[in-house]
What does this fold into?
Amino acid sequence: MAALCNRFSKACATITNRHFKISTYVRSMSNVPENTVYGGPKPQNPDQRVTLTSLRTKHRKGEAITMVTAYDYPSAVHLDTAGIDIALVGDSASMVVHGHDTTLPITLDEMLMHCRSVARGAKRPLLVGDLAFGTYESSSQQAVDTAVRVLKEGGMDAIKLEGGAPSRISAAKHIVEAGIAVMGHVGLTPQAISVLGGFRPQGRNVLSAVKVVETALALQEAGCFSVVLECVPAPVAAAATSVLRIPTIGIGAGPFCSGQVLVYHDLLGMMQHPHHAKVTPKFCKQFAQVGEVINKALSDYKQEVENRSFPGALHSPYKINTTEVDGFLKELQKMGLDEAAAAAAEAAEKVEANR
It folds into this structure.
């Protein structure tokens, strides 16, 4: 028995050593990005992920929930670093990324591309993907099929759908029954601008205000874990928030919601060109003027390239020693490329002089 245990221990040690060697080899492979712009991909830590359970805990404690849109890897990394609770891959990408005047033109395939990019960058937030216009209205089955794709192909944790018509409530219910978390969206629903007559606030008269509350309640009963309230008066949002057992996320809905959401480009102040200036909502606070910084950086870059001050020695890091330069010049001359040899020689002299 003792001999058997001894043999087993040696086998385990051998396996452990082999595993260590394999792990060391894999980490040294050239296709593993160990030092990229953002430090390389980071493994998910289940203990740090925002989940529906952790959102419910925040809601129960009365702690505000933060949500921001993200559309690509860099914006997702920024949200992740800032500790934002929910990253919404919104169909607003149609306007702020693709340059359309509404959210209607963006396709499911385009949305899935944005979802995948965000999923690679945001490891902590709960990931919610919008169902694009035209991908869930025909039937509850279509809605379920689309939602499944958003999770399986897009890497999202949940989906968001707009509206409170009976068919939308039914779609939300069927998606939840399929095992997919759903966030509702009432008030101003941008996908319905054809019916609403434009981007118009809702809940500004008795009937409309009551409808907002009733729709939010219906979405809760359908199984939604949260509801976005967009462009409704603060008292209406407060009433909906009070009556619901699930958190409300406000956007242009006053300070009484369970949390807030803003569009990434809006809150960063990236609206310095005519299209963004046209679509920037009244309710958005710009927490920075990133657009002005970007414009200045591009202008400075253009100027330095044109006056040939960029790139200087600091940004020309790759060197070739004198011996190699001489050999290179001789090879160029053998090839009959005297002008190229002269240009290389002159460049080498200038580089040496600027050291």
Summary: The chain is about 50% helix and 10% strand.
